[in-house]
Design brief:
The chain is α+β, with helices and mostly antiparallel strands. About 35% of the residues lie in helices and about 20% in strands. Helix 1 packs antiparallel against helix 2, helix 12 runs antiparallel to helix 16 and helix 16 packs across helix 17. Bound molecules: 2-(butylsulfanyl)adenosine.
């Protein structure tokens, strides 16, 4: 073999290896190498391709970006129409669906597959001889838009399919279908960034996913945190499946991510059970689902049942109860936030909206109230999207009796009585009193929030009590609280008081970005706090930063620069920070502590153990991680950061996989502790 041939072979080998590791990571959520090892392979491939561009192929994992922007999207024709689904909202409707299916099959019974219904954007991706050649949106079901360059940038979409783990051979052509979505958290960070750059924020993760996917410039899409789950196939050449479950298995083993919450169900009852399970965990999932899709599993039966014009007879979408409800506005109050902004809130006749009783709904601001013409006494539609605060979306004006009252902003702050002002060019009305109790409460709640210092047990109610009783006037007072103070509050007993004191103590060890965020500087959200922490590395340097220096940081605009400067110029803020440091705050500069350093790895993490470990008892293992700053809990939830899995793990392991939580086996666990594994 010539040298050149050897290089070509090596490049091919690297490509295949990297696609395999992408498969382990994105499709199985079970990587077998570390990020560093992955990066090393990737870099080697990149370097070789740069030196020998003749061996670069479009299906190389390095080719995920780099297309010139388009003027318009070309039409994308679906070989097989992409149908939509009929909806069901009640169990009865689902049972009727099952009855129709049975009837259509002449009495035979089928099995079902139940899948989370992702709330995102449908796409079809065409693979020829395993190579991604085209991708399009659904459009009207027959013709969509060609968004190939954009789909190529999505990390979880492989540019080449392989036959991993005993999958059927990749057919000469297969059109796969799935849903592109965005995790809620990524959506929020993206919106922070949009606002900071002066763009309109997206209304919800689905809009964000859709807007990101429909960019003429694929380099914009490449920067958006898009994800995907595949759920079916359209046209397939020279391969047939006997069940839909086989389809899902094949997709996964070709390297395409399939939602791990898909279930095979032997009858409709099992599917309904799964629906209730999904309903119970939907808020713990990192992404939004709006129901569950039930599909007849046997493909022969699917064919037999056929389809109506727009939807198949063999599938149905079982939607979660509508997130909208109609109720009456009893009153409109204003809430004062930490920066003094007054937000009008509708006080509602309590109403169940998709399983949660809603008593208040935000009206956003005065201009919104006028635009929607919301009046006290109006009958309105309220909606609740995911975990977002419920909002009044519409007034049913034909329900008016004439007794409704228009709302005006108060002239004085409802919490402290100071005059309310509307600054020039601002939508918001504000209370400018720094010592307004409502502002103090809101800033303490922000300080203690999960993204702030994450002080467990310090919620709205407790903060309100502490401020009202004069025990706390500023965040620094929290660290002077004695057990006796807490015991004097309703609802506190020995253990809860001690727990809160412990949580406060723990919060003193924090990271620079969290600390900056917790301070509640106007316009400094999580994203900007990270940017500032990255840039300055220490609180001291940030405090001394001049406006010009701040403006040089990519991503920091005038508003942020001004807000940061004026925050640190204020004597009271300097005093506050000094006090916190005097109370023993240690603020870690994240930049100096790469993940490999074990104690930084564990710090602040919530850890769950499942199964038997060889080297340690559960208690000993728990002690090792708590010593390193982690917290051990018993059950897996969205708050869990790490699950350590020993021999014969229980259902916690499954749940962790489903929630996409980091999983460590015993060997990795030892490595992360800095203990050498035996043997
Ligand atoms: S199956 C014939 N499965 O819901 C089957 N659709 O109206 C048609 N969706 O926009 C679709 N998750 O993109 C199917 N697991 C899932 C889904 C799913 C989300 C979307 C789909 C389409 C709509 C169906």
């Amino acid at each position: 073999m010539s040298d050149l041939e050897k290089i070509e072979k090596r490049i091919e080998k690297l490509r295949e290896e990297i696609w395999y590791h992408n498969y382990r990571y994105y499709a199985l959520n079970d990587p077998v190498i570390s990020d560093a090892e992955y990066d090393a392979l990737f870099r080697e491939l990149q370097e070789l391709e740069n030196r020998y561009p003749q061996f670069r192929t479009p299906d190389s994992p390095t080719q995920k970006v780099g297309y010139p922007p388009l003027d318009a999207f070309e039409p994308f024709e679906h070989r097989q129409p992409m149908l939509s689904l009929e909806n069901a909202f009640t169990e009865e409707e689902v049972i009727n669906f099952d009855a129709r299916v049975k009837k259509g099959l002449g009495g035979a019974s089928c099995s079902y597959v139940a899948e989370p219904k992702m709330d995102g954007v449908a796409i079809e991706v065409v693979y020829e001889n395993g190579v991604l050649v085209r991708a399009g949106t659904r459009g009207d079901g027959r013709i969509g838009e060609d968004i190939t360059p954009n789909v190529r940038t999505i990390r979880a979409v492989p540019l080449k399919l392989y036959t991993f783990d005993g999958a059927p051979e990749v057919p000469p052509r297969v059109d796969v279908r799935g849903e592109v979505y965005m995790d809620r958290r990524d959506f929020e960070l993206l919106n922070d960034e949009q606002v900071r750059k002066g763009f309109q924020p997206f209304a919800n993760p689905r809009n964000a996913a859709s807007g990101s996917l429909r960019q003429l410039d694929s380099s914009i899409t490449a920067r958006r945190p898009l994800k995907v789950f595949f759920y079916g196939v359209g046209h397939v050449e020279r391969l047939s499946f006997s069940t839909h479950w086989d389809v899902l298995e094949a997709l996964r083993k070709w390297g395409l991510p399939v939602n791990p919450l898909c279930r095979r169900c032997s009858d409709i009852r099992e599917a309904i059970d799964h629906y209730h399970y999904l309903e119970s965990i939907r808020h713990d999932l990192p992404y939004e689902i709006d129901g569950m899709v039930i599909k007849v599993n046997e493909t022969e039966y699917q064919r037999k049942l056929g389809e109506k014009t727009r939807s198949p007879r063999w599938a149905i979408a079982f939607k979660f109860s509508a997130y909208k409800a109609i109720t009456r506005v009893r009153d409109i109050r204003v809430q004062v936030g930490r920066t003094g902004i007054l937000t009008p809130v509708a006080e509602l006749e309590p109403i169940n909206v998709g399983g949660v009783v809603v008593r208040n709904a935000t009206l956003h601001n005065y201009d919104e109230i006028k635009r929607k013409d919301v009046r006290i006494g109006d009958t309105v539609v309220v909606s609740r999207a995911g975990d977002v605060i419920p909002e009044v979306v519409e007034v049913l004006k034909d329900q008016r009796t004439g007794k409704e009252a228009e709302f005006e902003m108060p002239k004085a702050c409802p919490a402290c009585g100071s005059p309310v002002v509307r600054l020039k060019d601002e939508v918001a009305f504000r209370c400018l009193n720094q010592n307004c109790p409502a502002r103090i409460k809101a800033s303490i709640i922000h300080f203690a929030s999960r993204d702030g210092l994450d002080i467990e047990g310090l919620g709205e109610k407790t903060v309100s009590l502490l401020v009202d009783r004069g025990l706390v006037k500023s965040v620094s007072d929290l660290y002077r609280l004695k057990k006796g103070d807490l015991l004097s509050l309703p609802g506190f007993a020995e253990i809860s008081a001690q727990n809160l004191l412990d949580a406060l103590e723990k919060s003193k060890r924090t990271t620079l970005s969290r600390f900056i965020y917790a301070l509640g500087i106007p316009y400094v959200g999580q994203y900007t706090a990270n940017v500032l922490a990255e840039h300055f590395g220490s609180l001291e340097r940030l405090m001394k930063a001049r406006r010009e220096e701040l403006l040089e940081i990519p991503g920091v605009g005038e508003k942020v620069a001004d807000a940061v400067c004026s925050f640190f110029e204020k004597e009271e803020n300097q005093k506050l920070i000094k006090k916190l440091l005097d109370y023993g705050f240690t603020i870690q500069d994240e930049r100096d502590y790469p993940e490999e350093v074990f104690d930084d790895f564990w710090k602040g993490k919530t850890v769950v153990f499942t199964g038997t470990l060889n080297r340690f008892s559960r208690d000993a293992a728990a002690k090792l991680v708590t010593e390193r700053g982690a917290k051990v809990t018993k059950s897996v939830s969205k708050r869990t950061d790490i699950v350590v899995v020993g021999k014969d793990p229980g259902s916690k392991y499954q749940k962790a996989k489903e929630l996409g939580i980091t999983i460590l086996d015993e060997k990795e666990f030892l490595q992360r502790l800095g203990i050498e594994a035996e043997g």
